[in-house]
Amino acid sequence: SGHLFELKAGKMVMDAAKLVTAETDKGLVFLKKSEGMLQFVWKNRSSGQEDNAILLFGDATFRKSKSCPDGRVYYLKFHNSERREFFWMQEPDASKDDAACKKINELIHGPAPASASTPSTPSAQSAQLSALGLDEATLRELQSAG
Fold it and tell me: What is the pTM of this model?
């Protein structure tokens, strides 16, 4: 499928009062690389319609919602804005939710360092920027230009 990771999850919408409501559609969240960029995609499993966000590595975090302690609600929080995309888990085994969340964040941020005793190793983001032909200063310039 070309997907780095996928899980069944429905989409949720937030109204003006910041109340989040689940949509009934069956969905699939997946991450894939396209032209060197990471894409976080939600796909309607019935219609095939896709909504995607292109992420710079480290640009967002996938988290469990603390506002819904009895539910399986997660959200993608973008660091450079107030944007949040909410999802409800549709995988049958709820015990795997935390592992799925961790895996998504590893793909977005790079794996956690195995040891702090290797300071000469560039950060995962620096390595990813280098692979795109960018450095951190150029990235800051691009972000401030927007």
Answer: 0.73
Chain length of the chain: 146
Using the structure block, give the residue that is written with the tokens 């590595």.
57
Q: Give dist(CA 104, CA 36) in Å, integer.
A: 17
- Classify residue 19 by burial, with Cβ atoms within 10 Å: 0-12, 13-18, 19+: exposed
E strand or H helix that includes residue 136: helix 136-145
78-119 pLDDT per residue, tens: 998 988 999 999 999 999 999 999 999 999 998 766 554 434
Q: How many helices (H) and strands (E) does the chain have?
A: 3, 8
